[in-house]
């Protein structure tokens, strides 16, 4: 791992910048597992709120959903940055990150946002960190069976082991599998570069990959590929943002040359550290893979 690459992953993005809360983050636990658990105690996943006190929350590990105001909706669209989430956490309880935060005062966001907060905290503590997007099949999705759903996680650089350690803070309390969510084994998380190339080479059924909106197939993996590429470049875009290639209008009409361009991106992302400079060159020159569509863009 080149030091320049690690410096890149110490830098804040517009999304991971903690704003005026940097000093507060420095006071949080240094232990990764303890830090992740504390963060998780301040968040309710939108699916948990929708389901209520059943399933993984039957023991109220995420709090009593009956205490959350009926008018509280998922807050992904209005709290896209770490600074925004931190400001709202402190507005609801001036103590900030606390283990005894009441359910009605927790944030209601999804995995991408938890990963943003974790990356923000780690970077603040001087630990190179990055958000990663892909798919995971280690959750109980009920009738959907054993499929791989869209998911966002983190990686941080362990200076002692001299490697990236993959962690899943959001999913750490609701795994349907037996592994350490704070050191995820290689191959357990479906990174989109490999998934995309496996689909293209017909090594896997594209319908194995789904997302929370009910979409499935190659387009779902393409979205994760773009999210992951942007995240590696410190641009952790939100769900409704997408390069032109990934839009509902464009994706079904991609030409073979355009699909081949995505193949080349995926090949480089199989080893983003080894190919970092090539990925950065694409980032700095390729309008189609960088400029976004969605919302008012």
Enumerate how many helices there are, as a single number.
11
Compute the average pLDDT. Answer: 95
Oligomer: single chain
Stretches where pLDDT is under 50 for at least 5 consecutive residues are none
Q: Helix and strand succession?
A: HHHEHHEHEEEEHEHEHHHE
The termini sit apart by: 35 Å
Round the Cα radius of gyration to an integer and report it.
19 Å
Q: Quick one: how many beta strands?
A: 9
Helix-residue proportion: 25-40%
Structural class: alpha/beta
- Net shape: globular
Main sheet overview: 5 strands, mixed
Our estimate of the beta-strand percent is: 5-15%
Q: Would you give an account of this structure?
A:
- The protein is of the alpha/beta class and 297 residues long.
- Helices cover 35% and strands 12% of the residues.
- It contains eleven helices and nine strands.
- It has helices spanning 3-8, 22-26, 32-40, 46-51, 82-92, 111-124, 192-200, 218-232, 256-269, 276-285, 287-290, and strands spanning 43-44, 107-108, 129-136, 148-158, 163-167, 189-190, 209-210, 242-243, 292-293.
- Strands 3, 4, 5, 6 and 7 form a five-stranded mixed beta sheet that branches.
- A hairpin with a 4-residue loop joins strand 4 and strand 5 (163-167).
- Helix 7 runs antiparallel to helix 8 (218-232) and helix 7 packs across helix 9 (256-269).
- The two termini are 35 Å apart.
- 37% of the residues are buried.
């Amino acid at each position: 791992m080149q030091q320049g690459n690690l410096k890149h992953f110490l830098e804040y993005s517009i999304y991971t910048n903690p704003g005026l809360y940097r000093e507060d983050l420095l006071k949080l636990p240094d232990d990764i597992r303890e830090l992740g658990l504390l963060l998780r105690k301040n968040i309710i996943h939108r699916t948990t709120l929708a389901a209520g006190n059943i399933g993984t929350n039957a023991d109220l590990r995420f709090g009593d959903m009956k205490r959350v105001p009926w008018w509280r909706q998922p807050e992904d669209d209005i709290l896209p940055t770490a600074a925004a989430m931190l400001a709202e956490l402190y507005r609801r309880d001036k103590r900030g990150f606390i283990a005894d935060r009441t359910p009605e005062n927790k944030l209601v966001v999804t995995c991408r946002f938890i990963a943003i907060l974790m990356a923000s905290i780690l970077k603040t503590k001087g630990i190179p960190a990055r958000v990663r997007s892909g798919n995971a099949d280690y959750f109980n999705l009920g009738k959907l069976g054993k499929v791989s759903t869209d998911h966002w996680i983190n990686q941080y650089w362990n200076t002692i082991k001299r490697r990236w350690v993959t962690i899943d803070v959001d999913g750490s309390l609701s795994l349907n599998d037996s592994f350490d969510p704070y050191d995820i084994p290689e191959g357990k998380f479906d990174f989109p570069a490999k998934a995309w190339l496996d689909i293209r080479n017909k090594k896997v059924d594209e319908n194995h990959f789904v997302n929370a909106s009910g979409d499935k197939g190659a387009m779902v993996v393409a979205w994760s590929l773009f999210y992951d590429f942007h995240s590696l470049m410190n641009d952790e875009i939100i769900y409704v943002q997408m390069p032109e290639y990934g839009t509902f209008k464009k994706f079904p009409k991609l030409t073979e040359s355009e699909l081949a361009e995505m193949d080349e991106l995926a090949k480089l992302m199989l080893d983003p550290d080894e190919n970092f400079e090539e990925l950065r060159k694409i980032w700095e020159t390729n309008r189609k893979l960088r400029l976004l569509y969605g919302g008012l863009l």
